[in-house]
User: Fold these one by one.
Assistant:
Number 1:
Amino acid sequence: MNKLYLYLTTCLLLISACSESSTNSNDSESGQLIILNEGAFGQGNASLTTYDPTTRELRQNAFASRNSPRLLGDVLQSALLHDDELYLVVNNSKKIEVTDAKTLTSKSTINFQGAASPRYMAITSDGKGFVTSLFTEYIYEVDLTTASVTDSIMIGAGSEGILYQNDRLFVARNLNLDFSTASGVAVVNPSTGAVESVLETLPGPQRMIFDGTSIWVNNAGVWGENNGGLTQIDPVNKRVAQQVPFDASTSGLTFSPETSTLYVLSGGIQRMSTSSPDQRTTISDRSFYAISVYHDDEDIVYASDAKNFAQNGTVYMYKNDGVVTDSIQVGIAPRDVIYLKN
Amino acid sequence: MKIIFFIILIWVWNSCIPETVSAHNPINSYHQPADTLQLPDIVISANRFELSDKERSSAVQRLRPSETVWRTALSAGSLIEKSSIANVRGYGPGALQTVSIQGFSGSQLNVHWGDMSLNHAMVGLVDLSLYPAILIDELVINTNQGSSEYGAHALGGVILLEQNPFSEERQTLRLEAGSYGSQSVQMRYQLPVGNLRVDVAGVLQQQDNDYTYDDVTSNPVETRRRRNADKSLNSLLGTISYATSNSAHETRFWLTDVKSGVPGNIIAPNYGSRQNDGILRGMHKYSRVINNQWHGSLSLTASRHQLDFFDPSTNLESLSKSHHVGLRTGARYLHTPNAQLRMSASHNYGWIRTSEYEAPDRHHTVFQLNGYLKTSLDLGIFPSMRIDRYSDFGSAVSASLGLNQSLTESSRLFTNINRNFAPPTFNDLYWPGLGNSDLVPEVAFKLDFGFAYSKDSFEGDVQIFTNSIDNGIQWLPGNNGQFRPSNIRSVSSTGASLNLQYRFSVFQLAGGYTYLNSRYKSERFPGDQAKGNQLLYQPKHRFNARATSRINNTSFIADFFFTDRRYTTEDNGLWLDPHQTVDLSLQQQIEIGTYSLSASASIENILDENYSQIRFYPMPGRSFHFAIQLTRRPNR
């Protein structure tokens, strides 16, 4: 295996936005994939599965085995790689577990209080962490040296994806406090905490990726109204470049920089070029919980089947023509796949 | 509210009420301790065949709270956990408790009080933590009968909360206190006046449930203390009956007000959440002996259950009010004592008002026929059939056939085959955007064989069973990732149970064991790894034992419980380890004239076992409880 790439939908772009971290290694043959298993809500069985695509060696419960008797927690929502540390955002446990990216041993825990519902994380160039929260109208500032929450910024809605680009935070406003669908991407100055503008999106913006020029946001749409789609944002001018309605809901987004291809979960797996997002090709019409893409000579889409969230899930590997090349059994409710170099 | 409650209790406690002598004869009698509390029952019943337990095609477990609950203020669920082989699944003291028997879930078990099912229409199950055991005279677990006798949800059987007759005036005051902020006050007044019976009992319970646990998510692991579902419960239960030689009127009511914390599990706690339950149930029954062969009854039932959940962290409030009014008429025809027939018809009207959704009002009509025939070979035959017609989703037909063959004076064989059902709940049908109006009732076929033996001081029964559930309702994610309910679950359960009891001198030994193999029969979706695996939270082995001694006025009880591994994921990859607990209790009773004073002390979980019934909802470690009870029986 000559070239290995893995792009976590949100984390990859966050990583690429942080100059000191990268997963875009073309020469690594000694990395491993980490599957984030969300676990069943309320059951406290979130876990990590490690997988070496070269040897096909698979290890379950990687966090628990390296940190016994500690458990990871409830609902592992996302992860962010930064400075050889892997930040695991555990939503329903209201915490971020800071682990050594190589050993997965825990180094510290960032705890949130009250109604905070941590979802995704971004780290700015001066080393401040910012974390979105689905059930509060704030994003939270985190001091990474003390592993503590130091401040909050009101953005007016519960938030999902977050991206740091061009000295600004772009925050997906997903959910109103009355549980109705929110919309818009808030542009936040992390130095002042000011919300400088709110960019209009389709309803229910969720995850965000950066393709090197633009930010792409998938919008879930309003439940039952099939009005989701993509929003392209110009981060330099802080404006919306275009809206791409799907006439359907969307639930996942990932990006391959090698092929400049977006992959979206919307009634199956759709792929499209960043240059012509209206021209979509269906890779699979099967429903999946999440997708990530990993480039190994060609794009391989890792599609997560969470089944019924009460048993171990399966990750299927799809070529971009829809052919399934392999599958692995992982933990409960696999969400994202990220790549770590050894 | 509490003040009013106390006033009512004090009023009924009023010992100035004239002492009377009763001419009423109880129809059931069994040994009761000196301070047993009993509620009156009516003499005439068209709802059951007047047969002894030995004549029925079942072997029921009868739990008498008065014999054990003096240890502490237990819920009905905890009483079942400590006194039977049923599998209780609780989220810790003060929190939701459901009971699972023979692999059936909490919503697949019917809980009955009088002519009324306690199963909640919105969720189908009964939270047994809401019912103080001390208010119940007898709790009967019957796994041999099902829907053709007790209607909806009786897939796995029925739990009956019974109230027994009394014949003498009695006043009782009881105070309890224990570890983790547990306090309880109970009062009861039983008054027979000629043909009139008045029985009112009330209980106030307060539990902080603040005990320690190991936080396996903290860095490093720490022992912490938290409030595990603090609870404040007020309950008032009353029965007024008037019986003559050929007719009886009986009115019952049960008011319960419960406020409890819902702190979530230790992995993802949510300490601000609260739940308030307000329950009002009432019924009136008129029974009459028409002639030597015909008995008839007419009963009116009504209930209201308000459930209010609030999570301040998300400002989420869920409020629901479920109501029910029912009219039932029944008749029993006694052709001969060995050939009897019961028939009944009822109509129930139920409606739900909830902040989550709107649901149509429900009309539920029932026709039921139950027979009993005893042959010259001492074979008892129990055929039954019942039709339930629901206005919103259709009909369900239940049927059963039971056989009871006496072998000797002390032994018998019995067998039952049942077709039972559980209706889809209001949540299943009408949850906005997700409910499925095409759901049909769950169906279960049950087959059991049993042998019972009772002679002198020994009693025992052994049963084997096999059950099959089809059209089981389960919420599963669809193509859009949203969970929706469908009739997709197929489960089979096989197993065996054993109950033994032996008395010698002042001692009594009792024990029970159950083996359960409960598995998914088929894949519910491609790649389903659950097929062939043991169901969630269903232990293969469960065992309980009790040793009791009573010397003069001193009683001693030792309880032992063992619960096997319980899987917490459907692939059986995660589980709770087996656990065992030991409880010890001691009671001393003093008789002074018409007064009886008892004091008791108990230690629960004396081995300080670290365990839970639901993962990450810790149960308390070693705990201590003390109680004193004063009983006045002026006619003694």
Number 2:
Amino acid sequence: MSLLEVQDLSMRFGGVAALHQVGFVVEEGTITALIGPNGAGKTTVFNCVTGFYRPHQGSIRLHRPEGALELTELLGGPFRGRDFASPGAFFRRLKYKIAGGSHLAARAGVARTFQNIRLFRGMTVMENLLAAQYNRLNRHLLSGVLGTPGFARAEREGIRRASAWLEFFALLEDANRLAGELPYGKQRRLEMARAMCISPRLLCLDEPAAGLNPQETAELAGWIRRLRQDHGVTLLLIEHDMGLVMEISDHVVVLDHGEVIAAGTPAQVRRDPKVLTAYLGLDEPSP
Amino acid sequence: MDRNRVSNHTTAPLPMDLHIAAQQLINGWVLGSVYGLIAVGYTMVYGIIGMINFAHGEVYMLSAYLTAIALALLAALGVSSAGWVIVLVLALTVLFTALWGWAIERVAYRPLRAANRLAPLISAIGVSLALQNYVRLAQGARSQGVPALLDGTLRLGDGENFVQITHQQILIVVVAFASMALLAWVVQRTALGRACRATQQDPLMAQLLGVDVDRIIAVVFALGAGMAAVAGTLVTLNYGSFDFSIGFVTGIKAFTAAVLGGIGSLPGAMLGGILLGLAESLFSGFVNTDYKDVFAFSVLILTLVFRPSGLLGRPEVEKV
């Protein structure tokens, strides 16, 4: 069953087409890699999927047990002709116009990490993970001030969940250190742990192996696999380390100049002449 | 020389009278607590959206009027015990001033969030003028007054050498510190405060983790306005008189305090407030009362020139 369905996605910056009719499907419980040369539009796809950009055209559907959610609508775009055809579409558009925003993608179960790590550096490791559970915790001002039982219970539950993820990523002994003080490899793991704290259905990793040494990359592969196997997370990742991509992915989507040029299993993609052309810059695919 | 008039010396007494210095320190501490309470609003808003909310002084001014309205309301309801009046007036004023802070952000700043940095600043100046003139028209330009609630005085020393602190002043210091402690607790220990800090450090990332950043920014404005309302209520109960223009100078002084302490830093705002209050008081006690505003703003200029990041602020780090 597909979890994420991207169709006909187009995005322009000024006159430059960053994405042109991109379409692919991420099956539930799989690891999908998005690869391509620099400037191919991979990060733009991520930004659309996580509700940060509003694409000019196309749809991104997140299929959840409670129904499909159109992620491109969350930012509250302008009314379109077909919104007036059905009251449902009209009120959905109106709702997101008033109270829309990127945070809704996270609440719907899409988490992401960044290529250049974006931790809350001035907060402790534990606080980083608690901040990610904002929607689960009791965030009423008065109950926090008065320390009501409900608040305390929610905090305990939050700390328990955070500790479980710290343990998973072998960061438990660093719980009270400032996130900005951690060595680079641990910061990468912390970013993944923090993303997991929103209990995502889909975890988007933007170059998770960037800056890691071969041993750390091997460990990363293990964690990504365990996330899928033990925790049922579906993963979508951008990665330049082809060794890692070929090793862990079930499905590979290749982008070049904002278009999907190939998709399939790692073995299929590796042999695809168009992919070789894009990567090696050959004019004609070799016979 | 009339030694009871401690606040209006215009010549420096030699040798230095210790009790006068002590008296000025007390006065300065009281004044500084008020500056600190207002400075918190500047510093929190700057921390979260990088904007100087020049309408914040007007929010303080509004809270003085709301205090008078709340006092009248409680009198009409027959609440007469001073303790209850103080608690209820504080609660009502904080609540309604916070609503004003929230509304100002919603109407005047949020639509401009994507615009360049100058737009919200100009909008803030517009809000400030609009509020001043609204209050002037609605409430009259004359100075208004409320009766004193507490009129006791604590006097230490004997004969001509004494220092005194009124019960009102004690109330100001105690309530100011209690509310700052409460705010620090909220920011450091609650889920809401954690989300505020996360948003301050990286609003985009906070959003991608499910934090409703618009709501957090609104909360920060409401909290800042609430703290200004604590100051407004305390000052109004103490001095008894106010008019539509009190927000301007007090607001800019509090802004000076925020810059002195390091804008963006919560403890900095409190420290800056106290230091500015002490410095201003000592200056008017020993040098010249008439020039105390000149002195306060010289502090602002010197801070900006020699230590732009303030006492407790961190130097601006370029974001990657």
